[in-house]
């Protein structure tokens, strides 16, 4: 994988973890989010049933501005940008953006109006794959300071802003993959109805090690019986 590929994988993982963090915070205020899992629904409908787009802004604390995306391209070498962010055509009507200290929720239409006003600085990201505008917070050094707070529908100050931390006493469960026979350990908190994906081949045909051993034992017995029956058939 090239360096840009590594970068995008890291950013995607960072965004996914922040999305889970925001879902927890929104649940605390009585707003449950039901995410779509498949790429088909995410592309054709949106990220979730509620219509809230969730974005992590890693530079918020450093720069004091929210970065609101308006266009993107999949690779720096691509010539043209396509509409994305607040101009992506999906079911989203709310925009949740922030970091682990605060989350601002905006109306998507409001953000479009702010962009159309041409009051805010337009920028391109460092990898030249995204364009957007900077919405100044109260700590910004740009003109229109405080507009991020002024136009937010809701601001959530996060009390527990650390990611999930496992306790030293948390148990691990040994799993084995039915596709490639790879054996690996999984924290109990990561097991949801025994649906575990193999870190090697990405198959979800994984079972707790004891069940996997029993399955392998029975499978070998079946194969032994098949070999014996085949031998008897050939000797006739």
Through-space gap between termini: 56 Å
Number of DSSP-assigned strands: 11
**Reading side by side through the largest sheet, how are the strands ordered?**
1-4-5-8
How many structurally independent domains? 2
Query: Tell me, what's the shape?
Result: elongated
Please tell me how large the radius of gyration is: 24 Å
If helices are DSSP runs of H or I spanning 4 or more residues, what is the number of helices? Answer: 6
Model regions low in confidence, pLDDT < 50 over at least 5 residues: none
Largest sheet: 4 strands, mixed
Give a quick set of tags describing it.
alpha+beta; 236 residues; 2 domains; four-stranded mixed beta sheet; single chain; 6 helices
Q: What does this molecule look like?
A:
32% of the residues lie in helices and 23% in strands. With 236 residues, it is α+β, with helices and mostly antiparallel strands. The chain has two domains: 3-157, no CATH class; 172-235, no CATH class. A four-stranded mixed beta sheet has the order 1-4-5-8. Strands 3-2-7-6 form a four-stranded antiparallel beta sheet. The protein has a three-stranded antiparallel beta sheet with strand order 10-9-11. The longest helix has 27 residues, at 209-235. The N and C termini lie far apart (56 Å).
């Amino acid at each position: 994988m090239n360096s840009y590929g590594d970068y995008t994988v890291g950013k995607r993982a960072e965004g996914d973890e922040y999305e889970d963090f925001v879902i927890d915070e929104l649940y605390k205020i009585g707003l449950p989010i039901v995410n779509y899992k498949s790429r088909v629904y995410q592309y054709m409908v949106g990220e979730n049933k509620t219509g809230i787009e969730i974005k992590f802004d890693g530079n918020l604390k450093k720069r004091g501005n929210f970065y609101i995306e308006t266009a993107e391209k999949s690779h720096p070498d691509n010539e043209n940008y396509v509409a994305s962010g607040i101009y992506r055509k999906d079911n989203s009507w709310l925009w949740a953006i922030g970091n682990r200290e605060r989350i601002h929720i905006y109306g998507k239409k409001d953000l479009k109006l702010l962009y159309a006003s041409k009051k805010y600085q337009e920028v391109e990201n460092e990898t030249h794959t995204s364009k957007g505008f900077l919405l100044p917070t109260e700590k910004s050094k740009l003109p229109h300071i405080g507009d991020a707070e002024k136009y937010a529908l809701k601001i959530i100050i996060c009390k527990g802003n650390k990611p999930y931390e496992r306790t030293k006493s948390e148990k691990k469960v040994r799993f084995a993959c039915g596709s490639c026979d790879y054996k690996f350990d999984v924290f109990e908190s990561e097991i949801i109805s025994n649906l575990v994906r193999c870190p090697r081949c990405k198959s979800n045909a994984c079972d707790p090690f004891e069940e996997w051993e029993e399955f392998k034992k029975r499978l070998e017995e079946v194969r032994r019986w098949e070999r014996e029956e085949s031998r008897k058939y050939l000797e006739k």
